[in-house]
């Protein structure tokens, strides 16, 4: 099982734009409204934090690999190699590079219409780390920090998420 997580602040922002750009998914009148619902787990597919806490229980399962979106963005080639090895493959350096070249955010976004149809442009919007800084108020920032501390600080998944690196202003 390959489990992908993204830091909660960028996840919230990405999910907000997803909700407001897919006609078949409920939209929100404002970021503030969405943020409140997100923090209370009242968005489609439920609570990020409940989901993370549940998956954290499986972080050491030998048949489960956790990959962090930010790690993919920062070193896609190394991540591709780790994923391949986890699934028992031994690709050459050239194969790893070829896969990484075709799996960059921009490469995937460029093919989104072909691979994902009408929702492709919504699924692959920006893909940047730190976009949360464009929407979060200081109060929202503090609320998310407190929620992370209660739910994930001190856990193995919390450490993998590198919250202090990606989610501190």
UniProtKB/TrEMBL annotation:
Its EC number is 2.8.2.-. Residues 1-152 form the Sulfotransferase domain. Belongs to the sulfotransferase 1 family. This is Sulfotransferase. It comes from Charadrius vociferus. It holds the Pfam family Sulfotransfer_1. GO terms for molecular function: sulfotransferase activity. Keywords: Transferase. It is an enzyme of class 2 (transferase). The keyword Transferase applies.
């Amino acid at each position: 099982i390959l489990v992908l997580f993204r830091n909660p602040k960028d996840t919230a922002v990405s999910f907000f734009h997803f909700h407001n750009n897919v006609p078949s998914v409920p939209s929100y009148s404002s970021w503030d409204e969405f943020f409140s619902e997100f923090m209370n787990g009242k968005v489609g597919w439920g609570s990020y934090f409940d989901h993370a806490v549940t998956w954290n229980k499986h972080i050491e399962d030998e048949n489960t690999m956790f990959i962090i979106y930010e790690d993919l963005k920062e070193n896609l080639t190394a991540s591709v190699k780790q994923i391949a090895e986890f699934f028992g493959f031994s690709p050459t350096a050239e194969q790893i590079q070829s896969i990484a070249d075709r799996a960059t955010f921009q490469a995937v976004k460029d093919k989104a219409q072909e691979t994902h149809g009408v929702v492709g442009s919504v699924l692959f919007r920006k893909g940047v780390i730190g976009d949360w800084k464009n929407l979060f108020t200081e109060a929202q920032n503090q609320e998310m920090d407190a929620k992370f501390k209660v739910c994930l600080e001190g856990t193995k998944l919390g450490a993998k998420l590198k919250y202090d690196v990606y989610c501190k202003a």
